[in-house]
Design goal:
Blueprint lengths: L1 H5 L6 H14 L3 E4 L4 E5 L5 E5 L4 E2 L3 H5 L4 H12 L17 H7 L67
Antiparallel strand pairs: 1-2, 2-3, 3-4
Protein name: SWIM-type domain-containing protein
Keywords: Metal-binding, Zinc, Zinc-finger
InterPro entries: Znf_PMZ (IPR006564), Znf_SWIM (IPR007527)
């Protein structure tokens, strides 16, 4: 609770950091208005997405999945500000999960301490749960090191054993 009381923004520290990173990355994009409620946002390396301002969606889907406005939507907000349109702050568009008020409500309740395990009452349930039987997994067959092709035929010869080498003999007339 002390950390939440020290925050000056309405968002959690993690959400604020993510939003700041997205704001810095948004400067690498260009948003173009289509004349209605959609913007085409393009960036380097053929990175291109469509932002729908009315439905608050982007084709990258990071906003829908994570709850924070993506860099494409933030660039769209910057473009709308240039046109002096009525635009809200980007932190208002963050999902309510990341707001400090939500966290304060969730953590406002106290967890009562409990007694030790020795003092717990014994269970009257007639069945006892036993752990499952442990089965040792079979090990995988491991191969020794693979020799290079020229050493594949070499081996240590026993005493008195001759090497099995085929030699080419050429005859001349």
């Amino acid at each position: 609770m002390e950390v939440m009381d020290k925050e000056k923004w309405p968002l959690t520290p993690t959400a604020t950091t993510i939003l700041d990173v997205n704001k810095s990355h948004a400067s690498h994009y260009i948003a173009r208005w289509n004349g209605a409620e959609k913007y085409q946002v393009t960036g380097a390396c053929q990175d291109q997405h469509v932002v729908d301002v009315r439905n608050n969606t982007c084709t990258c889907r990071k906003w829908e999945l994570l709850g924070n406005p993506c860099k494409h939507f933030i660039e769209t907000l910057y473009e709308m500000n240039k046109k002096s349109e009525d635009v809200s702050d980007s932190y208002i568009l963050v999902n309510k999960v990341y707001w400090l008020d939500t966290w304060k409500n969730a953590y406002s309740y106290k967890v009562e301490p409990i007694k030790g395990r020795i003092i717990w009452p014994k269970s009257l349930c007639p069945t006892t749960l036993i752990p499952p039987i442990h089965h040792k997994q079979t090990s995988r067959f491991t191969h020794g090191g693979i020799n290079p092709s020229d050493e594949a035929t070499s081996r240590i010869l026993q005493k008195g054993e001759k090497p099995n080498v085929i030699s080419l003999v050429t005859f001349t007339n």
